[in-house]
């Protein structure tokens, strides 16, 4: 099979590159690195091609695709399962390796190449172990003429434009962490490799950007899907990707003061990578309950081994360097920022790790959202006190002491109904205000402003969210406006038809009113998919101050008095959250662009 | 060496707090099979539990707007579930589900219904 051949070629090229590197024949080595990256990319392209032509002789294609999908959904089905994502990951690591090698071939950055190659190799092995190119004939033990003419199909929830971008962006973020990790390890091994932070700076920013963006895209998608718990549900898999992002954020702060934190900085870089591996392990091991679960996999054991080995090696290296790498006197603000971000990472880490202890006792447990919310709360407030303090000019920093007083005032005047949110608001709003004021100085303030906006949006939307159960008598109340809060909704008609797959679709035509004015119309729908069951598509009327979220899940037509239930959620200020994410992304992009010039 | 001691102490304190927080168990909720849950019906009429099982074919019905009734089984025992709320975005009556709620007499009153995963996105290899 061509696909498998390409994978093995890529593996061999990478191995040869590694061996030649050790023999110091650098020019030939570079050639083999490029060859390895190229063949892995060809393997990826070949897999995508097979998806495009719906070649069900490849089991992976059969498993996730079907002929009725549009071409772009066929393409995005390439990363619907773990076989494809490992290949994607290996591809990106090898491509970065080849780009990095070309750029740093003349300087000391070259020395991290073997490490990056080893990571690439590990992912190639993982890909080959659970190969996306296994044939349907082998899996089903059937002759090739019996291969099904139609694929198993993609889960309807994954037939979504977000599916095309959310997974690859996350994996891009994951893969890019390899470079700062390898730099940090080399710095720990070698006596003097002081340029390690500078060499990997743009890469860690890229990793931070794409991992953050990937998480955000996932949230944006999840918000639109009923039953995924809104934009953020502390689902083990999404939380497991947040942990390395938080640690990476801590690393970005530490790396600006690497002389003050000679051990902490590399420790954070290595742990970002280890936590990325851990996140992958969580997704693939099948030990957790999650909307992402891929099911148990064969690569779990190898992944656990890689994880354990990397962790042990990193810890030993860090401990060995404790005494011989002395730092300058550290800035307290930076130290606190790093610590608080790490503790926030730990809270999330703990919430997803604790259930394993039970798993070994044979008991399945889940950790409630409240654990994450309550325990992240004080550390987030502390983090924003430090941020506010840092943003103020030196002579005005004492005024930060007024913020707790303001918080108490907020608790008394109750701008929202939640006491914890009232107390937290000033802590976030003050740094938010100061970063706006200081925006002209640096794009870093854009990032801090974004972070503050995200929290404001998250707090206000979750506190202010309101669900209304609206019952409409059919057909008497068609066209009647039913009021809820400041809004109103009218159901104008119910349409039932069969779609191209011959599934029954039931659509509700609704108008949304604000006051007496009609502001939007939409059609929430429910599809009775013969294969996947009931599939609900909500209708969301987005607004700057409020989103109106309309859910229609059908009704029972057999009763005497037909009642059509429509559930409406009003979600205020969620736009702040999306805007915050946008600012975060713009801020770091400007920073990267400025440094690239 | 000093740093090592401090670092170690911080990690230990974090873990200790972690275990303490979780052992108070208000954040931890158990997941049980239908027969296991039924065995401790009394206890779980006061405490929240997640019950895991399969919907008995043909038993799923709407009884009122947003209100559903079905039988849940794990092969050994069967339980009548009354669920009030929205169905998940993709809901298959044949899929395995997790219901979250409490017992009320012999009926399980669920206020959360989740489709149980592995079967969710992945086709079985048989």
Jot down its keywords.
heterodimer; A: 597 residues; alpha+beta; four-stranded antiparallel β-sheet; 19 helices; 59% helix; 13% strand; B: 126 residues; OB fold (Dihydrolipoamide Acetyltransferase, E2P); five-stranded mixed beta barrel; 2 helices; 8 strands; 22% helix; 40% strand; elongated; disordered C terminus
Mean pLDDT of chain B: 81
Separate helix tally of chain B: 2
**What percent of residues of chain A adopt helix (DSSP H or I)?**
55-70%
Annotated CATH architecture of the domain at 29-115 in chain B: Beta Barrel
The rounded Rg of chain A comes to 26 Å
CATH fold type of the domain at 29-115 in chain B: OB fold (Dihydrolipoamide Acetyltransferase, E2P)
Unreliable spans of chain B: 117-126
Helix content of chain B: 10-25%
C-alpha termini separation of chain B: 57 Å
Overall structural class of chain B, as computed from helix and strand content, comes to alpha+beta
Which sequence of strands runs across the widest sheet of chain B? 2-4-5-8-7
* N-to-C series of helices and strands of chain B: HEHEEEEEEE
| Main pleated-sheet profile of chain A | 6 strands, antiparallel
> What fraction of residues of chain A sit in β-strands?
5-15%
**Contiguous uncertain segments of 5+ residues of chain A:** none
Biggest protein-protein interface?
A-B, 56 and 42 residues
Shape of chain B: elongated
* Overall geometry of chain A: flat
What is the assembly state of the chains in this entry?
Answer: heterodimer
Q: Which secondary-structure class do the elements of chain A indicate?
A: alpha+beta
Main pleated-sheet profile of chain B: 5 strands, mixed, barrel
Summarize the structure in words.
The complex is a heterodimer of chains A (597) and B (126). Chain A is of the alpha+beta class and 597 residues long. Chain A contains 19 helices and 11 strands. In chain A, strands 3, 4, 5, 6, 7 and 8 form a 6-stranded antiparallel beta sheet that branches. In chain A, strand 5 (504-514) and strand 6 (517-522) form a beta hairpin. The radius of gyration of chain A is 26 Å and the shape is flat. In chain A, 50% of the residues are buried. Chain B is elongated. Chain B has 126 residues and is α+β, with helices and mostly antiparallel strands. Chain B has a domain at 29-115: OB fold (Dihydrolipoamide Acetyltransferase, E2P), CATH 2.40.50.140. Residues 117-126 of chain B have low confidence and may be disordered. Chain B has helices at 2-23, 34-39; strands spanning 28-33, 49-55, 61-64, 67-73, 78-84, 90-91, 96-104, 107-115. Chains A and B meet through helix 14, strand 1, helix 15, strand 8 and strand 11 of A and helix 1, strand 1, strand 3 and strand 6 of B.
């Amino acid at each position: 099979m061509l696909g498998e051949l390409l994978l093995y070629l890529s593996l061999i090229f990478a191995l040869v590159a590694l061996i030649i590197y050790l023999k110091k024949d650098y020019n030939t080595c570079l050639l083999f690195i490029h060859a390895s990256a190229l063949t892995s990319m060809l393997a990826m392209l070949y897999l995508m091609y097979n998806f495009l032509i719906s070649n069900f002789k490849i089991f992976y294609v059969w498993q996730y695709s079907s002929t009725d999908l549009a071409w772009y959904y066929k393409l995005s089905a390439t990363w619907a399962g773990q076989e494809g994502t490992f290949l994607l990951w290996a591809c990106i690591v090898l491509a970065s390796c080849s780009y990095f090698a070309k750029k740093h071939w003349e300087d000391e950055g070259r020395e991290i190449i073997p490490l990056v190659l080893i990571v690439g190799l590990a992912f190639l092995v993982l890909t080959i172990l659970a190969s996306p190119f296994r044939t349907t004939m082998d899996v089903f033990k059937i002759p090739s003429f019996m291969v099904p003419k139609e694929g198993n199909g993609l889960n309807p929830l994954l037939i979504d434009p977000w599916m095309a971008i959310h997974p690859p962006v996350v994996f891009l973020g994951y893969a890019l962490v390899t470079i700062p990790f390898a730099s940090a390890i080399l710095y720990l091994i070698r006596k003097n490799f002081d340029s390690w932070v500078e060499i990997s700076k743009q890469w860690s920013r890229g990793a931070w950007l794409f991992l953050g963006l990937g998480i955000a895209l996932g949230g944006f998608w999840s918000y639109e899907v009923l039953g995924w718990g809104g934009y953020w549900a502390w689902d083990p898999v999404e939380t497991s990707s947040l942990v390395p992002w938080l640690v990476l954020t801590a690393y970005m702060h530490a790396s600006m003061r690497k002389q003050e934190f000679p051990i902490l900085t590399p420790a954070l870089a290595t742990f970002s990578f280890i936590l990325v591996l851990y996140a992958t392990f969580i997704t693939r091991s099948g030990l957790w309950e999650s909307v992402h679960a891929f099911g148990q996999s064969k690569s779990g054991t190898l992944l656990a081994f890689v994880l354990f080995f990397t962790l042990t090696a990193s810890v030993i290296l860090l401990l060995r360097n404790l005494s011989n790498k002395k730092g300058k006197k550290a800035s307290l603000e930076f130290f606190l920022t790093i610590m608080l971000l790490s503790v926030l990472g730990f809270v999330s880490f703990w919430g997803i790790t604790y259930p394993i202890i039970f798993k070994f006792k044979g008991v399945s447990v889940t950790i409630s959202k409240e654990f994450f919310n309550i325990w992240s709360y004080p550390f987030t407030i502390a983090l924003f006190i430090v941020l506010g303090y840092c943003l103020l000019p030196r002579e005005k920093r004492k005024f930060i002491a007024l913020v707790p007083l303001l918080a108490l005032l907020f608790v008394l005047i109750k701008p929202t109904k939640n006491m914890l949110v009232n107390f937290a608001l000033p802590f976030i709003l003050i740094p938010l205000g100061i970063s706006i004021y200081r925006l002209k100085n640096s794009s870093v303030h854009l990032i801090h402003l974004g972070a503050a906006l995200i929290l404001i949006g998250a707090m206000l939307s979750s506190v202010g969210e309101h669900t209304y159960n609206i019952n409409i008598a059919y057909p008497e109340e068609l066209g009647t406006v039913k009021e809820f809060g400041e809004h109103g909704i009218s159901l104008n008609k119910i349409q039932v038809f069969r779609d191209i797959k011959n599934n029954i679709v039931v659509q509700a035509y609704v108008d949304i009113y604000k006051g007496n004015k009609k502001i939007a119309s939409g059609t929430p729908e429910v599809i009775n998919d013969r294969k996947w069951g009931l599939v609900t598509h909500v209708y969301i009327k987005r607004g700057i101050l409020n989103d109106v979220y309309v859910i229609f899940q059908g009704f029972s037509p057999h009763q005497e008095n037909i009642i059509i239930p429509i559930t409406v959620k009003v979600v205020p200020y969620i736009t702040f959250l999306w805007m915050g994410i946008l600012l975060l992304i713009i801020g770091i992009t400007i920073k990267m662009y400025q440094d690239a010039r | 060496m000093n740093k090592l001691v401090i670092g170690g102490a911080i990690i230990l304190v974090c873990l200790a707090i972690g275990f303490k927080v979780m052992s108070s168990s208000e954040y931890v909720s158990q997941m049980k099979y239908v027969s296991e849950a039924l065995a401790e019906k009394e206890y779980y009429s006061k405490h929240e539990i997640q019950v895991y099982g399969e919907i008995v074919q043909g038993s799923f019905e709407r009884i009122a707007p947003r209100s559903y009734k079905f039988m849940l089984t794990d092969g050994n025992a069967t339980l009548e579930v009354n669920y009030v709320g929205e169905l998940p975005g993709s809901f298959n009556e044949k899929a395995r589900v997790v219901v979250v709620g409490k017992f009320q007499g012999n009926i399980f009153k669920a206020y959360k219904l989740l489709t149980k995963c592995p079967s969710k996105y992945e086709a079985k290899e048989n």
